[in-house]
């Protein structure tokens, strides 16, 4: 079967590299690692071991193959031994990891993880599994070329790379992945309108508080004039307090057309029987 029609285990069809892509990848994989990619740790005896950290190997693979150009797959997993003594746990396990490219090319290798005298099983399995899978991934990646760690098995290269000066690590704050926060500018027109509306509301509340009065009762007829000063049910000519005692209140439907000359100014409202007095109206309202 033609390779371009084959499918990987993830059911994604393989995609062939172009000739230019193959040349670029081959040139990148042939380069040896610089000192900034190589880490050291203590080995058996007084020897030191140069190795490639897992996160650096992933970054290198992303740069060479592309973030969507390669993938890892756990093919097998096996617990080699587990010992429990005195409440502590020692164990070792192995994992077979496969690294595949988008064109179907793959390499796989075995990784190993171990721990001694761990207090809990969960912590022991957590450490050993991660260590085995990461180790298997790195060992599979190194089979693609020097740039992914294969050069670290060259003793001549290791004897010379230690003399190469490592460049300083620069921290680029502008290249950080940050959460974008969009600040909205306040609308001055809306703010001024709200402020003006609040002032009007305050003035209205104060005005209503001032104009609110307690209605008259039968025992307090002396304050009956003030109770209707702001009533909307009365005509405007009745809103003036000073005119109540001097001017008679016109009837809504007068039976006679009586001019001001026929009414004695000295008469009180009680002496005009056809007039509706303020006192009687107050009783009707109650």
From TrEMBL:
Transmembrane parts of this sequence: none
Entry GO terms, CC: nucleus
Residue ranges, annotated region (Disordered): 211-266
Pfam family, one: Rad52_Rad22
UniProt keyword list: DNA damage, DNA recombination, DNA repair
Feature: compositional bias, Basic and acidic residues: 238-259
Record GO biological process: DNA recombinase assembly; double-strand break repair via single-strand annealing; mitotic recombination
Gene Ontology molecular function: single-stranded DNA binding
Low complexity composition-biased segments: 219-232
Family of the protein in this entry: Belongs to the RAD52 family.
Function per UniProt: Involved in DNA double-strand break (DSB) repair and recombination. Promotes the annealing of complementary single-stranded DNA and by stimulation of the RAD51 recombinase.
PANTHER family: DNA REPAIR AND RECOMBINATION PROTEIN RAD52, RAD59, DNA REPAIR PROTEIN RAD52 HOMOLOG
Protein name: DNA repair and recombination protein RAD52
Record organism: Dekkera bruxellensis (Brettanomyces custersii)
């Amino acid at each position: 079967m033609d390779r371009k029609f084959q499918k990987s285990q993830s059911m994604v069809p393989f995609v062939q590299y172009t000739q230019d892509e193959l040349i670029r990848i081959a040139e990148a994989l042939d380069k040896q690692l610089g000192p900034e990619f190589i880490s050291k740790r203590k080995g058996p005896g007084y020897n030191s071991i140069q190795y490639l950290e897992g996160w650096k190997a992933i970054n290198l693979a992303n740069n060479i193959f592309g973030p969507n150009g390669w993938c890892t797959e756990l093919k097998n997993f096996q617990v080699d031994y587990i010992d429990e003594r005195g409440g502590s746990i020692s164990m070792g396990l192995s994992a077979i990891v496969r690294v595949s490219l988008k064109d179907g090319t793959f390499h796989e290798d075995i990784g190993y993880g171990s721990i001694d005298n761990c207090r809990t099983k969960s912590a022991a399995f957590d450490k050993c599994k991660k260590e085995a899978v990461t180790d298997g991934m790195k060992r599979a990646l190194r089979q693609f070329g020097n740039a992914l760690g294969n050069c670290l098995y060259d003793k001549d290269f290791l004897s010379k790379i230690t003399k190469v000066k490592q460049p300083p690590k620069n921290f680029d704050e502008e290249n950080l992945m940050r959460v974008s926060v969009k600040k909205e500018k306040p609308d001055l027109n809306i703010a001024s309108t709200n402020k003006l509306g609040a002032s009007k509301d305050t003035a209205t509340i104060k005005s209503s508080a001032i104009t609110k009065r307690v209605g008259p009762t039968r025992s307090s007829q002396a304050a009956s004039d003030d109770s209707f000063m702001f009533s909307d049910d009365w005509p405007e000519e009745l809103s003036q307090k000073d005119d109540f005692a001097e001017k008679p209140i016109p009837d809504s439907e007068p039976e006679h057309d009586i001019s001001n000359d026929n009414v004695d100014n000295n008469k009180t409202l009680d002496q005009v029987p056809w007039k509706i007095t303020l006192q009687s109206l107050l009783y009707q309202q109650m």
